[in-house]
């Protein structure tokens, strides 16, 4: 096949542009371990360089790339680096980065097999591997979505439709007007996005029957209510602050007796199941009906990648399928019929690449290593004289520096100093600093340097030689 006139020139220009993009991206990645974690204020101020009126005539793409890197890269947060402990973010494993770069070149629409046989196959294989790795029932079906929020929403839509169907109501067809009321139960510490997902699927964020949680944020499995009619129970693997998981066995036993659908939000905590050392914390989780998790957090793939999994074959498609005459149905699984979105990038490719590169042992090691480093972090904080508020069972540490105002000022000082980045939270009524160790490249030295910087900031803020209490 001959190239149209000018094709050689266009290809050469593309190669030069992408070559430069690759070099700049590598330089960025190589600088992650040594740069300040939060961007400097002058770098954020310089973002004005990117904010100009829409040009009438386009610019040379090489100039656009240079401007993007020179003005944009310094104003990133080094959240892909080893000393970012904010939220539960994770970095990007080289295998995932490489697959993402190749995937960007592929530019596949993973909606249908006809649009991308490779994306459809990688989706299916990656979902099977995730299911195996997490010890979930073989045959569970799933799909890749933007994150755990949408994974919760997809699972809860399937749950809503299934429990209403058992009571003779076709929610996917008729909506919720006139439907029997669905009882929704969740723990006091359910993640805010579970409530958002409940609102999205028409079940309401404020109609929830709340079960009390213990001091680690796990549901107390006592005095559980009797449920009548269609019912849905939302449980959690991995509290966003403490890392604690709900006691699945007794809760599932009760929920089964009540005929309820059990959904588990395990955005990061479900990955505890991938290591023999932590699997006990989520024992019994495989007995649920649906699970939401992320690969962009603890599995260290790029954003955005969440995973919705449902035990009962056919449940997701009966809520998500969108047939049309122009959309060919293949003989096998069609990704768009398992997810809220139709067009979608080939998210499964990165998950496939990471799981192929790490294997079962590598994922267990990632989980174990980050949990070990979280314990090291907690040990350093305690040795410096400050209080760790949670039992460090997973990769999360919650730190109290004393009074609330002081804690807020110390966190601001840490973020400003730049060695590491930790966020704020409120835990059991106390202002606290939240640490999540979830990046593949974090080392013991990173943790020690971060604890030292945190101690210095705390000393500076309190104006004392010792801890702030
Ligand atoms: C327990 C839990 N559920 C849900 C979410 C939402 O995940 P995402 O931001 O990927 O939508 C998070 C994010 O931190 C989480 O920790």
Question: Describe it for me?
Answer:
This protein is α/β, with parallel strands linked by helices and 469 residues long. It has a domain at 98-354: 3-Layer(aba) Sandwich (Aspartate Aminotransferase, domain 2). Helices cover 41% and strands 12% of the residues. It contains 13 helices and eleven strands. A seven-stranded mixed sheet has the order 1-7-6-5-4-2-3, sandwiched between helices. A four-stranded antiparallel sheet has the order 8-9-11-10. β4, α9 and β5 (261-265) form a beta-alpha-beta unit. α6 (148-166) packs across α8 and α11 (347-383) crosses α13. The protein is globular, with a radius of gyration of 24 Å. The protein starts with 6 loop residues before the first helix and ends in a 7-residue tail after the last helix. The mean pLDDT is 96. The structure holds pyridoxal-5'-phosphate.
The hetero molecules present are: pyridoxal-5'-phosphate
How much beta, percentage-wise? 5-15%
Distance N to C terminus: 75 Å
- Residues in helix, %: 40-55%
Q: Globular, elongated, flat, extended or rod-shaped: what is the shape?
A: globular
The value of Rg in angstroms is 24 Å
**Number of E strands:** 11
Structural class: alpha/beta
CATH class of the domain at 98-354, named Alpha Beta
Question: If helices are DSSP runs of H or I spanning 4 or more residues, what is the number of helices?
Answer: 13
Query: In CATH terms, what is the architecture of the domain at 98-354?
Result: 3-Layer(aba) Sandwich
Q: Kindly report the spatial arrangement of strands forming the biggest sheet.
A: 1-7-6-5-4-2-3
Biggest sheet statistics: 7 strands, mixed
CATH superfamily of the domain at 98-354: Type I PLP-dependent aspartate aminotransferase-like (Major domain)
Could you please say which CATH topology of the domain at 98-354 applies here? Answer: Aspartate Aminotransferase, domain 2
Mean of residue pLDDT? 96
Order of helices and strands: HHHHHEHHEHEEHEEEHHEEHEEH
């Amino acid at each position: 096949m001959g190239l149209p006139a000018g094709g050689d020139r266009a290809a050469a220009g593309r190669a030069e542009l992408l070559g430069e993009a690759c070099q700049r991206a590598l330089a960025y990645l190589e600088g992650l371990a040594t740069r300040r974690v939060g961007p400097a204020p002058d770098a954020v101020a310089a973002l004005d360089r990117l904010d100009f009126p829409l040009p009438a005539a386009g610019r040379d793409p090489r100039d656009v790339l240079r401007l993007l890197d020179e003005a944009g890269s310094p104003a990133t947060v080094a959240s892909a680096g080893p000393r970012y402990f904010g939220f539960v973010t994770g970095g990007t494993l080289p295998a995932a980065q490489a697959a993402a770069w190749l995937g960007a070149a592929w530019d596949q629409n993973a909606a249908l097999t006809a649009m991308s046989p490779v994306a459809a196959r990688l989706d299916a294989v990656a979902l099977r591997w995730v299911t195996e790795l997490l010890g979930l029932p073989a045959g569970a079906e799933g799909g890749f979505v933007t994150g755990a929020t949408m994974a919760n929403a997809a699972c809860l839509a399937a749950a809503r439709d299934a429990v209403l169907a058992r009571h003779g109501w076709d929610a996917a067809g008729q909506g919720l007007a006139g439907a029997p009321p669905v009882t929704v139960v969740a723990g006091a510490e359910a993640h805010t996005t579970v409530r958002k997902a409940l609102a999205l699927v028409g079940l309401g964020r404020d109609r929830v029957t709340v079960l009390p949680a213990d001091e680690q944020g796990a549901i107390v499995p006592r005095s559980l209510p009797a449920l009548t009619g269609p019912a849905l129970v939302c449980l959690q693997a991995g509290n966003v602050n403490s890392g604690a998981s709900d006691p699945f066995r007794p809760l599932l036993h009760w929920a089964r007796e009540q005929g309820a659908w059990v959904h588990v939000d395990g955005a990061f905590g479900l990955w505890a199941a991938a290591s023999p050392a932590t699997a006990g914390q989520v024992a019994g989780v495989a007995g649920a009906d649906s699970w939401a998790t992320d690969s962009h957090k603890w599995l260290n793939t790029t954003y955005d990648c969440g995973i919705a999994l449902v035990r009962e074959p056919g449940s997701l498609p009966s809520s998500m399928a969108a047939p049309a005459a122009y959309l060919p149905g293949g003989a096998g699984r069609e990704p768009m019929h398992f997810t809220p979105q139709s067009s979608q990038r080939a998210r499964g490719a990165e998950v496939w690449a990471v799981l192929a590169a790490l294997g079962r042992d590598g994922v267990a090691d990632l989980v174990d290593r980050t949990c070990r480093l979280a314990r090291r972090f907690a040990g350093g904080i305690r040795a410096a004289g400050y209080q760790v508020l949670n039992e460090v069972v997973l990769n999360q540490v919650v730190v109290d520096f004393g009074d609330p105002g002081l804690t807020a000022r110390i966190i601001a000082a840490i973020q400003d100093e730049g060695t590491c980045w930790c966020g704020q939270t409120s835990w059991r009524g106390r202002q606290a600093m939240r640490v999540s160790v979830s990046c593949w490249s974090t080392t013991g030295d990173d943790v020690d340097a971060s604890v030292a910087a945190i101690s210095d900031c705390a000393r500076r803020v309190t104006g004392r030689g010792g801890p702030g209490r």
